[in-house]
UniProtKB/TrEMBL annotation:
CDD domains listed in its UniProt record: Sialidase_non-viral (cd15482)
The protein, known as: Sortilin N-terminal domain-containing protein
Keywords of this entry: Repeat
Natural source organism: marine sediment metagenome
Coiled-coil ranges per UniProt: none
Lineage: unclassified sequences, metagenomes, ecological metagenomes
InterPro entries linked to this entry: Sialidase_sf, Sortilin_N, VPS10-sortilin, WD40/YVTN_repeat-like_dom_sf
Amino acid sequence: MDDVPSISIGDIAIAQSDPDIIWVGTGEANIFRASVAGTGMYKSMDAGKTWQHMGLAATLTIGRIIIHPKNPDIVYVASPGHEWTDNEERGVFKTTDGGETWDKVFYISERIGAYDLVMDPQEHETLYVSMWNRIRERWSDPQPGPGDGIFKTTDGGKKWKQITNGLPNLEKTGRIGIDIARNNPKVLYAFVDNHNLGRMPKEGERDAYGRLKKGRKIVGAEVYRTDDKGETWRKVSPSNEMMEGFGGTYGWVFGQMRVDPNDEDILYIMGLALAKSTDGGKTFNRLYYDGLHGDHHGLWICPEDSDYVINVNDGGINTSYDGGKTWRDFHRIMNLVQFYNVEYDMEKPFNVYGSVQDHGTYRGNVAHGLPYRRGVPRVNTRWEAAPGGEGTHVAVDPTNPHITYSSSFYG
C-alpha cells in the first residue's frame, strides 16, 4: 500500500469466503496526542497487489471491519469519527455491493462514534457494537457522556436496541471493547473503562504520569459477561489494584479484548499490560516475558491452534506458540520503530536525533563509507541514548553540535 495516501491503519479484514479479498480501514481509532487521521476504506481483490479506494474518507478513522462470512460484498464498518471536532460521518456503515455504495445504518450523534463491532458467527444478521463519546477537547482528555454503551441488531442493521441490563452507569463509562465466543455465540464479553468513582487514593499514591493523586480514583478496567446474547450482563473480573490501574488514567487508548475462538472461558485483555484469563474472567494473570513490550493494542488467536497468538503493542509485534507463556519478537525480521520527530546536527559526519515511542531519545551517526539507498546515506546501525524523553523535540545549536536542547514530560 505504498501509494495509498495514509500512514495510519485502523483495521484490516480478510474475507473468509475468498482470501484474495482484503479490506483496510485507514485512520487510527485509538485516541492519543499523536493519533493520525486516515482517508477512508481501501479494498484489494488480488491479495494486496493492487488497491482501490472505496469511500468513507470523511470519517477520518476506522475502528473495525466485519465481512460477511459467505457474501464478501456485504461489509460492515465501525467508525469512531473525528477526534477533535463534531462530524456526522461516524457510526456503523454497511455496503451490500462491495463498497460501491455505503449506508449509515446506525448513528447517534455527531460526537458519538462506533468502536468495536462483532458479528454472531451463526446468525449473520446479528451484530453488536460499542458506542462512545469520542470527542477530545484541547484542554482535557476524552470524557464519558450520554449515548455510550453497547447496542444490538438482529436484522442486519435496520433496527438497533441498547443492551444495558447488568452493565455499570453508562454515562460514566469510557471506551468499551467487545468480543463474542465463536464456539458459543451466546457468550460475549465487554471490557469496560469504568469512570465511575471508586476508592480514595492512598497517601503518596501517584498516577500513571507520576502525579500525586487527588480526589477519588476511577473504578478502572472491568470485564462483564453475558451468557444470553446480551440480554443480561454480570461483572466477572476481580476488583483489585491490577484491574484498577490496567489502563492507567487513559484506558481509552486501549480498550481491546479477544476471546479464544475454541474456548469461551479463555480471554485476553489489553492495556498497559497484557493479561489472560482461563476461567471466564474471574481471575487474570499478567503475561510477563523478556522482550514483551507494554501498551497493547491488538491480538489475534489462531482458530486452528489457540496456543498460536500474535500480539501488537507499542514495541512492535510479538508471537507466542504456547498460549502466552513465552514470546518471540519480530525485531530481527521487521525493524519497527516509531519516531515522533527527526533532527540533525552539523557534525562531520553528522548525527541524526529522534524521539522513539516509549524509549526516549536516540542519536545515530551517519558514517562515511556506508552504502547509499536511493541516493540517501544510511545511518550507522549503532544508536546511543541522547537527552530527551518520549515524544520530545530536539534542537541542536548549528554552530556547536555539542549543545542540544530537548524536552521531556513536564519540562
